[in-house]
Amino acid sequence: MNNCPRAVIADDEAHLRDYLEQQLAGAWPELRVAGRAANGIEALRLIDEEAPDVVFLDIRMPGMTGLDVAARLVEAGRPPHMVFVTAYDQYAVQAFEHSALDYLLKPASLERLAKTVAKLKAALAAPSAAAAPPVDALRALLAQMGTVVVPAPAAAPAPLQWIRASQGEQTRLIAVDEVVYFQSNDKYTSVVLAEGECLIRTPISKLREQLDAQQFWQIHRSVIVAARHVAGTRHDFRGRLMVQLKDRAEQLVVSRAYADLFRQM
């Protein structure tokens, strides 16, 4: 059972969540539905907690749309495979732009769902290909459709070396080598140093793009830690994986989506 693929279903209409789960039980019996969400915010929380392999997202949900959820997942990195399920086909192009693996119109027939399941199984069976989001494949598909032109990504800039941060009434210029970890807090991101703490306005998603991924590891949607400050890991009484830091008492929670970083530790 531990090797069974896991999914989260997000739809604001309970009977449609039930219908899709029933259809999936027939089309993909080994799939386990790990959670069901009634809105986008609940979907993000479930995805963070459960780290599913697949997410079925309704596009029109209250508070945060399925497209908003997809954008947040892509920004955070390591998104699950996403399938949009909606009654409105005008969202198809936006779905592809947000790295959707497929797009289903409600109510999805068993025959159409079977094709989606086949795509998902193929993607899950190819972890090396799945390690990168399917943006390039979607860009090619959109170009063939003649629907929209999505520019190729620009060359990655050099990793961030310096940070301008606020500490009390002062503004400091901090070398990234001094940072122990970053943690998002409401409108700000805390920059935790060996001695003291500063604040910046740059969100975690933007920092992740600018930092050297070999030196800084994202371990949670809201935390990036400097690898050289990681002493080890342990599980707490709730079964959560925790990062222990060198020369610091606090421990940092690792979400399930990033737990594989520490499988060899």
Automatic annotation (TrEMBL):
Superkingdom of origin: Bacteria
GO cellular component, one term: protein-DNA complex
BP term (GO), one: regulation of DNA-templated transcription
PROSITE patterns assigned: HTH_LYTTR, RESPONSE_REGULATORY
Entry annotated with the keyword DNA damage: no
Keywords: DNA-binding, Phosphoprotein
Domain Response regulatory: 6-121
Residue numbers bearing the 4-aspartylphosphate modification: D58
Signal peptide: none
Chain ranges of the HTH LytTR-type domain: 163-265
Pfam short name (any one): LytTR
Stored Gene3D superfamilies: 3.40.50.2300, LytTr DNA-binding domain
GO MF entry, a single one: phosphorelay response regulator activity
Classification via SUPFAM superfamilies: CheY-like
Protein name in the entry: Sensory transduction protein LytR
Source organism of this protein record: Duganella phyllosphaerae
Lineage: Bacteria, Pseudomonadati, Pseudomonadota, Betaproteobacteria, Burkholderiales
Gene transcribed to yield this protein: lytR_2
